[in-house]
Amino acid sequence: MKLSEYARKNNLTYQSALRHWTIGLLNGKQLATGTIVIFDDDSEAVKNKTVQVATYARVSSTQNKENLDKQQERLIDYANAKGYKTLYNIKEIGSGLNDSRPQLIKLLRCSQIDIILVEHKDRLTRFGFKYIEELLDIQGRKIEVINNIVDDKDDLIQDFISVITSFCARIYGQRRSKRQTEKLIKELNVKGN
User: pTM surpassing 0.70?
Assistant: First the structure.
């Protein structure tokens, strides 16, 4: 069957199926025309592939370090209960609004990882979770959230708090930056005279 048929039959995006073909998970051949033909016995090959899993635990500040350790323990326990073998267990301290978290960036760039386990969506990011999820899906990877909030009201409240926190941080950051600039100008004026 063609790769596109294989993808439909196995509930995969075409890009995921193509990735499986590229990394050698599928048994088939590529015709001179470029068409990829998959042999029928290959749906089992993908199912039997060893899944590479990473856990990602995050807290906002060092004051919550104890919670960080407990969060990671829960993730590892969940992975073990599901029969996953974890390749990486990542812990990070940083705001969920911060887009410069080096451990998360390394994890997202690591193509070896098939599943990223997080306790709650907001442990990965406060905003843009769906974008990250979609991009990983294109690569044939996924995020598995252990505790999904099903109450939209709680989710909305958390988003609202995040927006306020983000704007407050930006305002105070601008004020600090303005004070530092004024101080530098004052020092330059004193040195210039």
Answer: no
